[in-house]
Amino acid sequence: MKKIFVILLCLRCISSYAEDGYRLWLRYDNVDDAKLLVQYQHAITGIQLNAVSPTLQVAKEELIKDLQGLLDKKIVEQKTTANGTIVGGTPASSVEIQNFFSEKEMDGLGEEGFIIRTASLESKNVIFIAAKSDVGVLYGVFYFLRLLQTHQQISKLTITSIPKIKLRLLNHWDNLNRTVERGYAGFSIWNWHTLPDYIDQRYIDYARANASIGINGTVLTNVNANSLVLTKDYLIKVKALADVFRPYGIKVYLTARFSSPIEIGHLETADPLDSAVQQWWKQKADEIYSYIPDFGGFLVKANSEGQPGPQDYGRSHADGSNMLADALGPHNGIVIWRAFVYSHETPTDRFKQAYEEFKPLDGEFRKNVLVQVKNGPIDFQPREPFSPLFGAMPQTPLMIEFQITQEYLGQSTHLVYEASLFKEVLNADPDSYRDEDGKGSTVAKVIDGSLDHHELSGIAGVSNIGNDINWTGHPFGQANWYAFGRIAWDYNLSAVGIADEWIRQTFSNNQNFVNTIKKIMIASREAVVNYMTPLGLHHIMGFGNHYGPAPWYDKAPRADWNPVYFHRADSIGIGFDRTAAGSDALAQYKPGVAKQFENLSTCPEKFLLWFHHVPWTYKLKSGRNLWNELCYKYNEGVDTARWMQSIWEKMRNHVDAQRFNEVKMLLNIQVKEAVWWRNACLLYFQTYSKMPIPAQYEKPDHTLEYYESLKFPYAPGNG
Ligand code: GCW
Question: pLDDT tens digits for 71-80?
């Protein structure tokens, strides 16, 4: 007995000291504030949750297990309601809930919302976690657990929470051979080889983590798709994953390679207007639904970067997506068709191509098609203005696609908190965005369907998850996964507020620690913009692997893959003229936005070089000329990275040794690379500006030739 006790004690020591990050924000360790712990222990005496479905079973197990961890006491099931009972369920599973809540109140919660409320039931103080649907209860349970993990008061709770956006999806760019395109956290977590017979515990923990933040769908495979995943051998594996995820409210989606009828169906064409092709997809859909009755649908990248598509047959994106939509429609499946297209042949500004391609198709898509648009017009740069498509297709439900994986944001070695980026786009230009609708017509309201009255609505994040022990490579990468889910549920949450909850759950509730780390996280997004692409520079990274700076690069097989195409530096100035005098991309925005951006003096300086070719001597608001401002910004970025590094050093006592050291080493890399970006970019741009780097700034410690000579043949993420 004594021996067992000692072993248990040791296990606890290990788990509280050797933190490898695997537990994410779902740690549920003892509440370490003694006073609060006693309060919680009194407030919660047991649970009543009738586990009549797999989802309610999961909710109940989660509640029992996690409360036990948090409260350091055994959580019992109470047959009769007592003071401190948590009463969880739906009107169908719980008489108490059916009696207490009106039908109207429950209906108002929709398919996923929930209520958490302290109330008096037969003169006992209880805590209700109630929903109309089982998954709503699960979401409520996770929300409630979060309150305890973040040390909130729970004596008077009146919470009603309903997601604003219907489809909240992760997009995995995972290949069947387990490499991950733009994945920086190891290999794919889907072990296709051992599926369907072996269910890795990670699949279950993945589902828990997603459910805890309200993510309700996952696209398992890369948009650069492999048609094999649609063969029976793989569909059986997909079914096994769908079965694991179902209780957690997560639907499975697949990417559909447009040429599949040829590759695996042995047809001669994939023409969407060919009846044999249409029939093939119908049968394929029937087959998929025979395995996975709640299959979500297809995500498609077509006629983009070499992928096959309807244009190969002279058909439009609408023809292609509608054909798939017709196959999935009878099963309530949907098609998510990506607008990330730009063609080899088209010589126009790449910025303009998605809009030119898709805007004319507005109104031509089936009801079960969503068009998925990247947040910005180019490609997930550290900062992009919002895509003009968000104002241009009122008859089509548009999904927004963010990239959680940090392809252009330091990959998995830089601490960059992306909530600020997500929020910036979703809140974009409320006043001027849509003149006819006036104030408040934000991108978020396009996305949630409210502005144009769409039933379907969706938001996607390209996953940063891999099989690294801590899931995301960088311990702070977890915060971006977390923030994506939280914002997808409620885009009104603030970046600071989300950081606050994440830090408390992931590390510690120590107020000093929480406040300090929040500052780092919030500063980190602007820092990466500054040390990589200040003032609206974009797409100046290394070719292929997208690692490190390469503003000089001009050897890509197509012009619009070259950094020089985007920055256009010359002896006069730098930046891409997208006004009427240049590519006129600005004309794609509503007049209010276009007007603001086209005028050099009203264009926000953060977007300056996105829209203007600006003379080196042009005076900015700071009083500095453009060259000096560039020097200033690059140095500011480096300074912020160093500041983050020094602040983290002071946090040693608040963090377990393992994660402390991991973050410390990564911050060292981040600082090194920030310096590299600054030096390489300034030295290169200086060859055009011909102006000195002002004396107050650190001088580059290498030559431009040195930076240009660096090669990284095995940098990760190329898939
Ligand atoms: O950002 C670019 C990436 C490609 C990616 C593509 C896309 C999946 O560099 O790796 O391909 O965008 O979004 O389709």
Answer: 999 999 999 9
